[in-house]
Amino acid sequence: MLTALGILFAVAPTVVWTKIARTSSVGFAIGGTLLAGASLLISVQQGWIHAPRPDAHLLFTTLAPLLIACGAGLEGRHENSPPPEWIARRNGAIGFLGMQFALTLVAGLLYALIISEGSDAPPSKALPPLPPGISMINEGTSCGSGGCWRVATVTSGDGLSRPEIIRELGLQHESCHSSGWLLDWRDLCVGARDNGENVTIYAGW
């Protein structure tokens, strides 16, 4: 259900443009660009492209109406005055795209408000991938005064020592990177610890 809604959300501006486009040259150029943007957004939704989904949705719903407005302006330079029925379709398109942008903006602000509380742990995919020979024993979350973390205990099936496991994982030092562009300014930090008995890997904001 959510996948279908996401696809409809992505292709909606393209459908809107097909209803108001008046020339073949500009129509195909703008329509192709919108369709390419929709494909990129769907790829982010499905996890085929690694990018922050809330930021991608907000960026798409901001740029798509601007692109459509530019297309309508270019067509207006080469066409006669539009018929009354086109004006009605244009007004409907403006209303639809405005509603889509408003809903996305509200959802984005709610998302930013929720993550600002710092009570959530990163998802499982935030943990680093495990190389061959190293497997996960258990996974969970841990919270403290500084926030919450995703934690997993790993072991080696090849008899590697704990320092060797950490070296195989490439986590001798904690690494951090930004988790978003617009709505989420938190840094996601990933690292590993040797607690004297086993190796734990973690991901935290």
Widest β-sheet, arrangement of strands: 1-2-5-4-3
What overall form do the CA principal axes indicate?
Answer: elongated
The structural class is alpha+beta
Instruction: Report the biggest beta sheet as strand number plus sense, adding barrel if it closes.
Output: 5 strands, antiparallel
Content of β-strand = 15-25%
Proportion in helices: 40-55%
Q: Roughly how many Å is the radius of gyration?
A: 24 Å
Question: Helix and strand succession?
Answer: HHHHEEHEEE
> What's the total number of strands?
5
- Name the poorly predicted regions: none
* Overall pLDDT level: 88
Terminus-to-terminus distance? 30 Å
Number of helices: 5
Q: Please, could you describe this protein's structure?
A:
The chain is α+β, with helices and mostly antiparallel strands. Helix content is 53%, strand content 19%. Strands 1-2-5-4-3 form a 5-stranded antiparallel β-sheet. Helix 3 (53-78) packs antiparallel against helix 4 (84-116). The two termini are 30 Å apart. The model has no long low-confidence stretch (mean pLDDT 88).
